[in-house]
Each structure stands twice: as C-alpha cells, then as structure tokens.
Amino acid sequence: MFDILAVTLLIILALVLAVLEIFFLPGITIAGICSVLFYGGGIYYAYSAFGTNGAVITLFIAAVTTIAVIIGFMRSRSLDKMSLHTEISSVVPSPITPDIKVGDMGVTLSRLNPMGKIIVGIHTIEARADNELIDEDTPVKIIRIEPTVVIVCKETENEKTGNNINTSKQK
C-alpha cells in the first residue's frame, strides 16, 4: 500500500511541476528538471517495487495523465483569464514618399532626440536630427533622405527669410 502511495505521490509532484514549467515558468527551469527527476524516480520506484510490468503500467498511466492534464489546462478558461490581452498598436515606419525632397522645410511634431516626427506639407514622417537635439515646433530642413527616415537640421534665419549669406549688395 505504501509503495502505490509513494509512486502516486511522485508522479503527481512531477505532473504539477511539468504544468508549472510549461505554462508559468519561461525556459528550462528547476521546476522542469525536478519534474523529469520525479517522473524518473516514480517509474524507478514502481520498477523496484512491482517489477517490469508495474513500471510499464506506471509509465503508461503517467504519460496519459500528463497529456490529459496539459490538454485540459490548455482548453480551460483559467489559462485565458491569466493571459495578457493587449494589442500592439505600433507600426513600422513607412517608406518616404517620392514627393519629399532634400531641401524641403518642415516643423517638428515631437522632440528629435535624435529621432522623432516631423510634418512636411501634408506628410507626417520619421526624422532624425543630424548632430543636435531639436525641440518640438521647430522649423527644420531636410538634408538627407534614407528609405524610412529623413535626416534634418534646424532651419536657420537666412533660410527663413530667403536671404543668402554670400549675397552682395546691389547698387
């Protein structure tokens, strides 16, 4: 009677640890290793107490019970209640449209630290500051275009007014 109780207890412990390993603990942890050891110990104890036939019957019952418990746990609502139900709302930056050119002016929608969003015309695009941090609502100029991001720098006062530094005075 004690032998059957000991084998049953070892198999139940192994089953509980296997469920913990599969559903709750990521990776191979101590629970998984202990589960394998308890399964092996229970089957070995059944072999030493009941012989080969007892070990085979114990192995068959342990395998069927383990599969049934894992399938039952996967179909139960308890696993659904514990799972995370969030949606990923982020998107991959889209390619830059052909109507955006080097030299176009825009305004930052967020701080470029060094990445952020700018608006150029009607397009909102990802931008990266060239060599500085640029605050929100700052006029910027596109200096280089990459497949999914534009490189910008602050718009200078001369560019805002349309003046060129090298312009000579006309008489």
From TrEMBL:
GO terms for cellular component: plasma membrane. This is NfeD-like C-terminal domain-containing protein. The chain crosses the membrane at residues 28-47, 54-74. InterPro entries: Membrane_assoc_protease, NA-bd_OB-fold. Gene3D superfamilies: Nucleic acid-binding proteins (2.40.50.140). Keywords: Membrane, Transmembrane, Transmembrane helix. The keyword ATP-binding does not apply.
